[in-house]
Design goal:
Length: 327
């Protein structure tokens, strides 16, 4: 029995594929390479270059491979772009997933682990955030992910489909082997942008807002290592296959760091002064996002291995230093 990983050529997907293979699973990767990289796909995974909208191709894949479950990463994930091009996000994320789930139902594939996001919460009512807290996305990206969670819930009530949605907080870091890591074009995420300064690709890091109601005025986020996210996907799939009920779990370290603290840590890791310039707030940024991941710890038995920001940034730095232009 094989595991299908959609978006397995992307940042988090490629790390999950590697973890699955290291755990002795047979893996099939589906990716249209619109944002992913063929080089990021583990050589032991079978690769299909295709689009999840293509129902006939999905039927063929499900018939040709003995797929026991799906881990679904394939999606667009840039918050800013989702505000300018909402239909692109509805089309790829929501309608693409609709096509995938229809094919799963048609072909009797019962288990799906879905890549969701803390952006489903919007501005939190309190931190740390619990899965039962209000979900009111402040951007289109989060809205499409929440719509998919709901689609899976209603579909699971009517068909033999079981899901786990994993709401990631701030994914970061790279595989300790240094062979795979974060590569986005354009890059919009804080840690890789900071590391562009010591790489000589950027003069300074822009800090988006220093007038938030936090200890130093900059936004607080919960940074979670990509390999810890990978572990959670395998645990979630095993949980479903062992008869666990459909559910939603937060994945974070439970500790928040301000933008200034992240920059300071990167200065220590790289030994570079990394100049920072204060800029206006970025639209749609909540002041604080910190997860309670107690539910994933107690039900899935998840235990993040990287709980130290310096080590997390060190793994990112090792990757970027050796791959300054990505793959
Ligand atoms: N951020 C920043 N400068 C940048 C990129 C991001 O100050 O060049 C801030 C951003 O406003 C947020 C935090 O860093 O408070 C994390 O942003 P990122 O885009 O990495 O992740 P998000 O929290 O949006 O998922």
């Amino acid at each position: 029995m094989k595991i299908l990983v959609t978006g397995g050529a992307g940042y988090i997907g490629s790390h999950a594929v590697r973890a699955l293979i290291e755990a002795g699973r047979e893996v099939v990767v589906l990716d249209d390479l619109s944002t992913g990289f063929r080089e990021a796909v583990h050589p032991d995974a079978k690769f299909y270059n295709m689009d999840i909208h293509d129902g006939e191709a999905l039927d063929k894949l499900f018939r040709a491979e003995d797929i026991a479950g799906v881990i679904h990463f394939a999606a667009f994930s840039q918050v800013g772009e989702s505000m300018k091009k909402p239909l692109k996000y509805y089309d790829n994320n929501l309608s693409g997933t609709l096509s995938l789930i229809k094919a799963m139902v048609r072909n009797g594939v019962k288990y799906i682990v879905f890549s969701s996001t803390a952006a489903t919460y919007g501005e939190p009512e309190r931190v740390p955030i619990l899965e039962s807290d209000r979900t009111q996305p402040t951007n289109c990206y989060g809205e499409t992910k929440l719509a998919i969670e709901k689609m899976m819930k209603w579909t699971g009530g009517a068909h033999d489909l079981h899901y786990v949605a994993l709401r990631y907080f701030n994914a970061c870091g790279a595989h300790p082997s240094g062979e795979i890591g974060e590569a986005h074009d354009p890059e919009t995420h804080l840690i890789p942008l900071i590391l562009q300064v010591p790489l000589g690709k950027r003069e300074a890091i822009s800090v988006f807002g220093d007038d938030y109601p936090t200890k130093d005025g900059t936004c607080i986020r919960d940074y979670i290592h990509v390999c810890d996210l990978s572990d959670a996907h395998i645990l979630a799939l095993d949980y479903l296959m062992d008869g666990g009920g459909s559910d939603v779990f937060n994945l974070g370290n439970g500790e928040g760091f301000t933008v200034k603290e992240v920059i300071e840590t990167a200065r220590r890791v790289t030994g570079h002064p990394i100049p920072a310039e204060m800029c206006p707030r970025r639209a749609g940024d909540p002041a604080q996002l910190v997860a309670s991941s107690e539910k994933a710890r107690s039900i899935l038995g998840w235990k993040p291995r990287y709980n130290d920001l310096e080590t997390i940034i060190q793994t990112a730095w090792d990757w970027h230093r050796n791959h300054p232009n990505g793959y």
